[in-house]
Amino acid sequence: MIKEEILYQGAEAKIYKTRYMDFDVIEKRRIKKSYRIREIDERLISTRTKEEAKLISEARKSGVSVPIIYDIDLEKGIIVMQYLKGDRLKDIFNSLDEEKRKKICIEIGKSIGKLHKNDIIHGDITTSNIILYDNSLHFIDFGLGEKSSEIESKGVDLHVLMEAISSAHSKYSESFKFVLDGYKKEIKDDYEKVEKKIEEILRRGRYR
User: Fold this and answer.
1) Distance from CA of residue 160 to its chain's centroid?
2) Tens digits of per-residue pLDDT, 62-78?
3) Is 124 assigned a catalytic role?
4) Which of 25, 39, 61, 168 has the most CB atoms less than 10 A away?
5) For the segment 106-143, what is each residue's pLDDT rounded down to a tens digit?
6) How far apart are CA 55 and CA 148, in angstroms?
7) pTM of the model
8) 92 and 50, same structural domain?
Protein backbone atom coordinates (compact mmCIF):
# COMPACT_ATOMS: atom_id res chain seq x y z
CA MET A 1 0.00 0.00 0.00
CA ILE A 2 1.32 3.46 -0.95
CA LYS A 3 2.01 5.67 2.04
CA GLU A 4 0.50 9.13 1.80
CA GLU A 5 1.41 12.24 3.75
CA ILE A 6 -0.93 15.19 3.91
CA LEU A 7 1.07 18.41 3.55
CA TYR A 8 -1.69 20.98 3.54
CA GLN A 9 -5.45 21.22 3.84
CA GLY A 10 -7.32 24.30 2.72
CA ALA A 11 -10.96 25.12 2.11
CA GLU A 12 -10.81 24.03 -1.53
CA ALA A 13 -8.22 21.27 -1.68
CA LYS A 14 -5.96 18.87 0.16
CA ILE A 15 -2.31 18.47 -0.82
CA TYR A 16 -0.74 15.03 -0.43
CA LYS A 17 2.77 13.72 -0.92
CA THR A 18 2.49 10.25 -2.39
CA ARG A 19 4.00 7.94 -5.04
CA TYR A 20 3.31 7.68 -8.75
CA MET A 21 5.22 5.51 -11.23
CA ASP A 22 7.91 4.78 -8.59
CA PHE A 23 8.73 8.37 -7.67
CA ASP A 24 7.52 10.96 -5.19
CA VAL A 25 4.73 13.27 -6.35
CA ILE A 26 2.27 15.83 -5.07
CA GLU A 27 -1.43 15.19 -5.48
CA LYS A 28 -3.80 18.12 -5.26
CA ARG A 29 -7.29 16.81 -4.52
CA ARG A 30 -10.20 19.22 -4.66
CA ILE A 31 -12.71 18.86 -1.83
CA LYS A 32 -16.37 18.05 -2.51
CA LYS A 33 -18.86 20.50 -0.99
CA SER A 34 -21.90 18.85 0.55
CA TYR A 35 -23.83 22.15 0.61
CA ARG A 36 -23.76 22.35 -3.20
CA ILE A 37 -26.03 20.42 -5.54
CA ARG A 38 -24.01 17.33 -6.50
CA GLU A 39 -24.10 17.94 -10.26
CA ILE A 40 -23.03 21.56 -9.84
CA ASP A 41 -20.27 20.59 -7.41
CA GLU A 42 -18.92 17.95 -9.80
CA ARG A 43 -18.97 20.43 -12.68
CA LEU A 44 -17.16 23.09 -10.63
CA ILE A 45 -14.51 20.64 -9.44
CA SER A 46 -13.90 19.40 -12.98
CA THR A 47 -13.77 22.91 -14.48
CA ARG A 48 -11.45 24.33 -11.81
CA THR A 49 -9.12 21.35 -12.04
CA LYS A 50 -8.94 21.71 -15.82
CA GLU A 51 -8.35 25.49 -15.61
CA GLU A 52 -5.59 25.16 -13.03
CA ALA A 53 -3.79 22.49 -15.05
CA LYS A 54 -4.09 24.66 -18.15
CA LEU A 55 -2.63 27.69 -16.34
CA ILE A 56 0.32 25.63 -15.06
CA SER A 57 0.98 24.37 -18.59
CA GLU A 58 0.78 27.89 -20.05
CA ALA A 59 3.05 29.23 -17.32
CA ARG A 60 5.69 26.68 -18.32
CA LYS A 61 5.35 27.68 -21.98
CA SER A 62 5.84 31.32 -20.97
CA GLY A 63 9.21 30.45 -19.44
CA VAL A 64 8.23 30.28 -15.77
CA SER A 65 9.36 27.29 -13.70
CA VAL A 66 6.40 25.27 -12.40
CA PRO A 67 5.91 21.63 -11.34
CA ILE A 68 5.62 19.08 -14.14
CA ILE A 69 2.09 17.66 -14.42
CA TYR A 70 2.03 13.86 -14.66
CA ASP A 71 -1.67 13.09 -14.56
CA ILE A 72 -5.08 14.76 -14.30
CA ASP A 73 -8.40 13.24 -13.18
CA LEU A 74 -11.11 15.78 -13.98
CA GLU A 75 -13.89 13.61 -12.57
CA LYS A 76 -12.24 13.33 -9.15
CA GLY A 77 -10.60 16.76 -9.26
CA ILE A 78 -7.02 15.51 -8.92
CA ILE A 79 -3.79 16.89 -10.37
CA VAL A 80 -0.67 14.75 -9.96
CA MET A 81 2.47 16.90 -10.07
CA GLN A 82 6.21 16.79 -9.61
CA TYR A 83 7.35 16.86 -5.99
CA LEU A 84 9.79 19.74 -5.67
CA LYS A 85 12.21 18.79 -2.92
CA GLY A 86 13.32 22.34 -2.23
CA ASP A 87 12.78 25.21 0.20
CA ARG A 88 9.65 27.32 0.42
CA LEU A 89 10.77 30.88 -0.01
CA LYS A 90 8.77 31.80 3.10
CA ASP A 91 11.04 29.57 5.20
CA ILE A 92 14.35 30.97 3.97
CA PHE A 93 13.61 34.57 2.91
CA ASN A 94 14.59 36.19 6.22
CA SER A 95 17.83 34.24 6.51
CA LEU A 96 19.16 35.10 3.04
CA ASP A 97 22.01 37.56 2.77
CA GLU A 98 21.10 40.92 1.30
CA GLU A 99 22.56 40.31 -2.15
CA LYS A 100 20.91 36.89 -2.49
CA ARG A 101 17.54 38.28 -1.36
CA LYS A 102 17.79 41.08 -3.91
CA LYS A 103 18.67 38.67 -6.70
CA ILE A 104 15.78 36.35 -5.83
CA CYS A 105 13.31 39.25 -5.72
CA ILE A 106 14.42 40.41 -9.16
CA GLU A 107 13.93 36.87 -10.48
CA ILE A 108 10.46 36.73 -8.91
CA GLY A 109 9.60 39.98 -10.69
CA LYS A 110 10.85 38.65 -14.02
CA SER A 111 8.76 35.49 -13.62
CA ILE A 112 5.62 37.46 -12.78
CA GLY A 113 6.35 39.66 -15.79
CA LYS A 114 6.48 36.59 -18.04
CA LEU A 115 3.16 35.40 -16.65
CA HIS A 116 1.52 38.79 -17.11
CA LYS A 117 2.88 39.21 -20.66
CA ASN A 118 0.89 36.08 -21.45
CA ASP A 119 -2.16 37.32 -19.47
CA ILE A 120 -1.70 34.66 -16.79
CA ILE A 121 -2.80 35.83 -13.34
CA HIS A 122 -1.53 33.62 -10.53
CA GLY A 123 -4.04 34.86 -7.99
CA ASP A 124 -2.10 34.05 -4.82
CA ILE A 125 1.55 35.03 -5.20
CA THR A 126 3.09 34.71 -1.74
CA THR A 127 6.46 33.45 -0.53
CA SER A 128 4.60 30.27 0.50
CA ASN A 129 3.80 29.58 -3.14
CA ILE A 130 7.34 29.92 -4.47
CA ILE A 131 9.83 27.09 -4.03
CA LEU A 132 13.58 27.31 -4.55
CA TYR A 133 14.43 24.01 -6.20
CA ASP A 134 17.46 23.08 -8.28
CA ASN A 135 18.66 26.73 -8.15
CA SER A 136 15.44 27.91 -9.77
CA LEU A 137 12.31 29.59 -8.41
CA HIS A 138 9.22 27.48 -9.03
CA PHE A 139 5.70 28.91 -8.75
CA ILE A 140 3.08 26.58 -7.30
CA ASP A 141 -0.68 26.61 -6.58
CA PHE A 142 -2.51 28.29 -9.45
CA GLY A 143 -5.87 27.38 -7.89
CA LEU A 144 -7.00 31.01 -7.71
CA GLY A 145 -5.52 31.90 -11.09
CA GLU A 146 -7.18 33.09 -14.26
CA LYS A 147 -6.52 34.41 -17.73
CA SER A 148 -6.89 38.19 -17.89
CA SER A 149 -5.39 41.08 -19.83
CA GLU A 150 -6.78 43.63 -17.34
CA ILE A 151 -4.26 45.97 -15.71
CA GLU A 152 -6.40 45.76 -12.54
CA SER A 153 -5.84 41.98 -12.32
CA LYS A 154 -2.09 42.37 -12.82
CA GLY A 155 -1.89 45.12 -10.22
CA VAL A 156 -3.81 43.03 -7.70
CA ASP A 157 -1.54 40.04 -8.40
CA LEU A 158 1.53 42.10 -7.49
CA HIS A 159 -0.19 43.78 -4.57
CA VAL A 160 -0.88 40.36 -3.01
CA LEU A 161 2.86 39.66 -3.04
CA MET A 162 3.67 43.09 -1.64
CA GLU A 163 1.28 42.46 1.26
CA ALA A 164 2.69 38.97 1.79
CA ILE A 165 6.25 40.29 2.04
CA SER A 166 5.18 43.11 4.37
CA SER A 167 3.35 40.65 6.60
CA ALA A 168 5.62 37.59 6.70
CA HIS A 169 8.93 39.41 6.19
CA SER A 170 8.27 42.88 7.60
CA LYS A 171 11.95 43.51 8.31
CA TYR A 172 12.62 43.23 4.58
CA SER A 173 9.45 44.82 3.17
CA GLU A 174 11.58 47.13 1.00
CA SER A 175 12.57 44.03 -0.99
CA PHE A 176 9.38 44.43 -3.01
CA LYS A 177 11.00 47.26 -4.97
CA PHE A 178 13.45 44.69 -6.38
CA VAL A 179 10.47 42.57 -7.48
CA LEU A 180 9.26 45.60 -9.43
CA ASP A 181 12.74 46.08 -10.91
CA GLY A 182 12.62 42.54 -12.29
CA TYR A 183 9.01 42.93 -13.42
CA LYS A 184 9.88 46.09 -15.34
CA LYS A 185 12.59 44.24 -17.29
CA GLU A 186 9.96 41.86 -18.66
CA ILE A 187 6.77 43.89 -18.92
CA LYS A 188 8.25 47.21 -20.21
CA ASP A 189 5.31 48.73 -22.18
CA ASP A 190 2.67 48.23 -19.49
CA TYR A 191 4.93 48.76 -16.49
CA GLU A 192 3.84 52.34 -15.69
CA LYS A 193 0.15 51.38 -15.93
CA VAL A 194 0.62 48.45 -13.54
CA GLU A 195 2.70 50.54 -11.14
CA LYS A 196 -0.04 53.21 -11.04
CA LYS A 197 -2.63 50.50 -10.46
CA ILE A 198 -0.71 49.20 -7.43
CA GLU A 199 -0.60 52.75 -6.02
CA GLU A 200 -4.34 53.07 -6.63
CA ILE A 201 -5.00 49.78 -4.81
CA LEU A 202 -2.93 51.02 -1.88
CA ARG A 203 -4.97 54.24 -1.72
CA ARG A 204 -8.20 52.25 -1.74
CA GLY A 205 -6.97 50.27 1.25
CA ARG A 206 -6.12 53.42 3.21
CA TYR A 207 -9.51 55.05 2.72
CA ARG A 208 -11.72 52.05 3.48
Assistant:
1) 11
2) 999 999 999 999 999 99
3) yes
4) 25
5) 999 999 999 999 999 999 999 999 999 999 999 999 99
6) 11
7) 0.93
8) no
